[in-house]
């Protein structure tokens, strides 16, 4: 039979979202934000160090000005002396440089970079590589080991090794178009974040020499993990827009959408709730620190304060830097609304 005269409703495909609303993590974090008085000096010195030999030009150089790594360092290590803050800032700036490089690398490229970096750390006086990344590694690490405790040095190198192992796995996943399950992603992301060597720098920056058995205590480990999770997961929320425009799926939001069957905004809210829970976990752990005697307790309190500085500092810096929201960071901080970028072809 003919169906003329029968009107069928038109079904329009669902339109892709054009914006997301960020969770209010800044209000949930009640830690005091502090900024080192050495910020301007180390920012100038690190940029001179990074740009030496004209290795970064044009847009790449502009991006490092907009990164404002010096502000992040100054908020995360506010009590460090000037020379120690400079080492921390050199490392963080270089870590962003490595992160940008690894985004464009296959697993062979990350392994080659890892070989140069780790040999430069394990043998800073004997190993020689003409690669710029090797020279930079030896330069900041030689300055670090003049005052860093043996434990801090060991933790720095071991966790940086984990970083390279995890970014190599990330490169393999990216090449295969794999979206990992949430549990696997969280375990991998705790290393790809690069936070763990930054925690060793808290010891270095504050002249701490905390015994290994104290650093390995479950509550100290849990505090470091909670801080890592907050810094990392909130970064996934803040960087999602830029990453989705490039088709990058190594981010907790697409992982959650895939695993939980959520739409984009619901996944953002889901990850936001996890971020708030990580702050709450940190507060609870901090209130339940055991005692190891007055001297060690003082050093532990300084270390844990350093983790808190990282939590609050990274949250505020994310809106000051141009890395995630361009020039609109302060507006985004106020409104929490992000207009999504078109997908690049």
From TrEMBL:
SUPFAM superfamilies: Terpenoid synthases
Entry cofactors: Mg(2+)
Residue ranges the record marks as coiled coil: none
Top enzyme class: lyase
Keyword annotations: Lyase, Magnesium, Metal-binding
Pfam families associated with the record: Terpene_syn_C_2
A GO molecular-function descriptor: metal ion binding
Gene Ontology biological process terms from the UniProt entry: isoprenoid biosynthetic process
Gene3D superfamilies cross-referenced by the UniProt entry: Farnesyl Diphosphate Synthase
Family from the record: Belongs to the terpene synthase family.
Name of the protein in its database record: Terpene synthase
Species of provenance: Asterophora parasitica
């Amino acid at each position: 039979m003919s169906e003329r005269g029968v009107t069928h409703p038109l079904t329009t495909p669902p339109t892709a979202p054009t914006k997301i609303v960020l969770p209010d993590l800044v209000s949930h974090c009640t830690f005091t934000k502090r900024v080192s008085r050495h910020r301007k000096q180390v920012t100038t010195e690190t940029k001179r160090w990074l740009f030496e030999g004209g290795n970064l030009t044009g847009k790449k150089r502009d991006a490092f000005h907009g990164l404002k790594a010096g502000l992040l360092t100054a908020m995360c290590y506010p009590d460090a002396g000037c020379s120690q803050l400079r080492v921390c800032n050199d490392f963080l700036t270089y870590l962003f440089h490595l992160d940008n490089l690894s985004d464009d690398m296959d697993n062979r490229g990350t392994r080659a970079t890892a070989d140069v970096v780790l040999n430069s750390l394990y043998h800073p006086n004997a190993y020689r590589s003409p690669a710029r990344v090797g020279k930079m590694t030896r330069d900041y690490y030689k300055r670090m080991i003049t005052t860093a405790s043996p434990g801090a040095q060991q933790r720095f190198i071991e966790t940086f090794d984990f970083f390279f192992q995890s970014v190599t796995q990330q490169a393999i996943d990216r090449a295969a178009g794999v979206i990992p399950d949430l549990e696997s992603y969280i375990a991998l992301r705790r290393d790809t974040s690069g936070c763990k060597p930054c925690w060793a720098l808290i010891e270095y920056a504050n002249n701490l020499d905390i015994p290994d058995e104290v650093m390995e205590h479950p509550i100290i480990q849990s505090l470091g993990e909670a801080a890592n999770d907050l810094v990392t997961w909130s970064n996934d929320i803040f960087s999602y827009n830029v990453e989705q425009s490039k088709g990058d799926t190594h981010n907790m939001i697409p992982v959650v959408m895939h695993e939980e069957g959520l739409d984009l905004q619901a996944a953002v809210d889901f990850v936001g709730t996890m971020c708030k829970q990580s702050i709450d976990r940190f507060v609870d752990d901090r209130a339940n620190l055991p005692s190891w005697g007055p001297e060690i307790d003082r050093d532990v309190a300084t270390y844990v304060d350093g983790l808190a500085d990282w939590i609050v500092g990274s949250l505020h810096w994310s809106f000051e830097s141009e890395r995630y929201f361009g020039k609109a960071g302060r507006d985004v901080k106020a409104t929490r609304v992000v207009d999504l970028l078109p997908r690049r072809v």
